[in-house]
Amino acid sequence: MLNQFVPSVSSRRVLLATSLVCALSASWSAHAQSPAPTALKEITYLLPAPSNLPAFGPWMIAQAKGYYEKEGLKVTFVAGRGGVDVAKQVGAGNAVIGGAIGDTPIIARAQGIPVKAVAVLGSGSLTQLVSHKEEKIESPRELKGKTVTVLAYTDTTYYALLGMLSKVGLTKNDVNIQAAGPTGVWQQFTDKKATAMAGVPDWTVSAMEAGAQVDILPSDVYFKSMAQAILASDETIQKNPQLIQKLVSATLKGMKDIMLDPKAATSVYVSQVPSYKGKEAQIQKTFELYNKYVYAQQKVPGMMDESRLSDLQKFYVSNAIVQKEAPLKDLYTNQFIGK
Q1: Residue 68 is part of a domain; what is its CATH number?
Q2: Which has more pLDDT, 187 or 13?
């Protein structure tokens, strides 16, 4: 009786083959139905200088920690020739996103370039007045007749210096201002060929590493220039706001990491920019200066301060850097901030 319930050898082989076919069919069906991996959207992110500068720490950390990739983006950083050049390229559609300074749109709009700042990385100024400690410079007023280095006469460090001088009744004619380039600006200062420099944290740390004993006077005390910014064109903001949102969000995460833990951020940064291996202390000090003078006290990370921008534009017009004021809403948008 039991034999009728026991399949023959040949029957068992048929059953096994049938099972294998069914299993393979199910596997192929599941594979065919599962979605293919989504390709990352390739983006060219134009920066005003080489991306390996510590100033671009937020961007490099966002890249290293996969923040852009998590947004579905494959970002390639390309160096432009300063913030205004970046604005021109972004405005012309050669790059969808770029880095500059928060006041760059003031200059760009005056030249007919349709770009806005879509985020500002910090509430402070990128520029500080750095002097030799023994000079005991406590006010820009004490720079009269002395030599001060800046990057270039068309750079925001120069404009920030002019702004500081104007607040104490001095002009460019009262000070010997030397445009020394990205290396000379701090090297000439370090060699004591200049009493002070209008510099960014990167240069300050370079001077300190070279032996300079410095005092740092934030330009905000006298003149509220701006931090670094993210720029996008009017057209991209209108037609592809989702892309701008992703780029802004990822980059601001990199800045927040530096603010939260400069030491941990340094390790991540050096993994992304290995040329600084062995110089971790220098990078950490640079990040700490950015936290103290640039990033700190921004109530909402990335948000533009409209009143600050308005005052800054008035200064640009009064000093004939631009011909006339543009509507403030043409210079920035906060629509991508706090989301």
Answers
A1: 3.40.190.10
A2: 187
